[in-house]
Amino acid sequence: MDWNPADGTGPVHVPLGHVVANEKWRGSQLAQEMQGKIKLIFEDGATLADFYLSSRSCILYITEADLVAGNSYRKRLVRVRNSSTLQGIVVVEKTGMSEQYFPAVQKFTVLDLGMVLLPVASQREASCLIVQLVQEQAREPSRNPFLRKRRSVLSEASLVRTVQQIPGVGRVKAPLLLQRFSSIQRLSNASTQELEPVVGQAAAQHIHAFFTQLR
Amino acid sequence: DQEVSSGSGPHCSKLCLANKLSASRLPQDERKPCILVDSHEITSGLEVISSLRSTHGFHVEVCPLNVCDYIVSNRMVVERRSRSDMQNTVNKSKFVEQIQCLKSMFERICVIVEKDREKPGDTSRIFRRTKSYDSLLISLIGAGIRILFSSCQEETADLLKELCLVEQRKNAGIHIPVLLNSKHCEALPFYLSIPNISYITALNMGHQFPSVKKMANSSPEEISMYAQVTHQKAEEICRYIHYVFDIQMLPSDLNQERLKSDA
Mind telling me how many Å the CA of B166 is from chain A's nearest CA? Predict the structure, then answer.
């Protein structure tokens, strides 16, 4: 249906709300569990990934058997990693049997390749996870709570707090100093003589020393 | 050669001096990697700390980080969470708030999800994967936050080590002696009070700027270089330093207090 380069990293067309699955998953438990909730399109041929959530993001599924068999899964991961258009999410079966291989997979996937890795205990768990990934991708990014901006605190209150960290300056002197010198930068350049009328002689010396003392 | 850190005393300042001297001479890989740990981890993650120190030979510095668990580089923070904590929906809003706070301070965030310790015979802790757990993971991924999975504290230490080494290779490693002398200590709370500044950034400032006055008169380029922050962050700091104070804008409770003291 689409142009595919020989290595299978070319764009795959994924209709909205669908998942394009590699032909090899037809009839599997994973595919059956997903089919109840989302529409699967099976694609034959040289596709690199196991599932395509969109034309830009795909899932590479590492089974328990893949893990036990050795490092052959790595080649596939690297090819997706090297394709400029495709973001790969690696889902790995972490079971009692494959558990011992998990740290090595994680190190390779996340720390060496910088890809996303999600462990699942079974194909059933994987199907739930993939369905949620599809639903999440269809949503507005602003629905993501971690992407929301925090309300910023007014700078005036923080400035007072910052000036209060100067030895000898408390909640009374801090606003006075800021009112007179208007910014931290100007305050840092004030001479003892300029500071004296605002806070008195002793505090003026402390403040001046605090700013100019070489560390 | 395990070090007694987190304390102070004469031998610490000697060590600090030695670090300072060696930092300029030794090539990067010969230096002991450094990691900052929040003091609450002494109770909740003692094995992580001891494993980092004894097994991996790290310089572990316990600091009052307050908002986060581990700082592994100039730009990266690591949060250690138990899997049951991640499962528990009651904690979600608190967790979201914390991550948002970390996002305002750090360029890179990593969450290590650690398996809870199992007590023999305790079946209440059997892990049942929930939809909200999956959705939390997916949201974290969507926000560009890295997730690592660990089965125990030792493995968490190993992951922290790896993260630290990756960051060092990318030239973001922590290179300053964390133990500062008393003059540095005086400036540290001042730098820490700048909004959205991480502990390591404040430490870098305390160590790299010859005086606070010099810092306050620096350009964004200089701040970016000395404090080891992005240009954007340096500009944010600069804006704060130059921000013109308006007493009218002060929240009323603070302002009222001042008026009272005037009267």
Answer: 7
State which residues of chain A have pLDDT below 70. 1-11, 45-47, 215
Residues A5-46: tens digit of each pLDDT: 445 556 678 887 789 999 999 999 999 999 888 999 998 866
Q: Are B30 and B145 in contact (CB under 8 A)?
A: no
Give pLDDT, residue B16: 42
pLDDT above 80 (res B211): yes
Measured between beta carbons, which residues in chain B are less than 8 angstroms from residue A141? 142
| Mean local confidence (pLDDT), B248-254 | 73
Distance from CA of B194 to the nearest CA of A (A): 7
B249–chain A nearest CA distance, Å: 6
Using the 8-state DSSP alphabet, how is residue B11 labeled?
Answer: H
Q: Do A215 and B249 touch (CB under 8 A)?
A: no
* Residues in chain B closer than 8 A to A166 (CB atoms): 190
Q: Structure tokens of A20?
A: 């394009």
Do residues A140 and B136 lie in contact, with contact meaning Cβ atoms separated by under 8 Å?
no
Contact B213 A188 (CB under 8 A): yes
pLDDT class of B8 with cuts at 50, 70, 90: very low
What is the residue-averaged pLDDT of chain B?
83
In b/e form, how buried is each residue of A2-28, taking b as 16+ CB within 10 angstroms?
Answer: eebeeebbbbbebeeebbbbbeebeee
Residues of A in contact with B139 (CB under 8 A): 136, 144-146
Percent of chain B whose pLDDT exceeds 70: 78
Contact list in B for residue A103 (CB cut-off 8 A) is: 155, 158
For residue A91, give the H/E element and its range.
strand A87-93
Secondary-structure breakdown of chain B: helix, strand, coil percentages, each rounded to the nearest 5 = 55, 10, 35
Chain B residue whose CA is closest to A115: B146
> Do B75 and B111 meet the contact criterion of CB atoms below 8 Å apart?
no
Which residue in this structure is represented by tokens 């049942």? B128
Other beta carbons within 10 angstroms of residue A201's beta carbon come to 11
Contact assignment for B162 to A178 by CB distance below 8 Å: no
pLDDT in tens, B65-77: 989 999 999 999 9
Cα–Cα nearest to B180, from B211, B155, B203: B203
Tokens of A39: 């529409």
Chain A CB contacts of B76 below 8 Å: none
ipTM: 0.90
From the CA of B177, how many Å to the nearest CA of chain A?
14
Closest-approach residue (CA) in chain B for A168:
B186
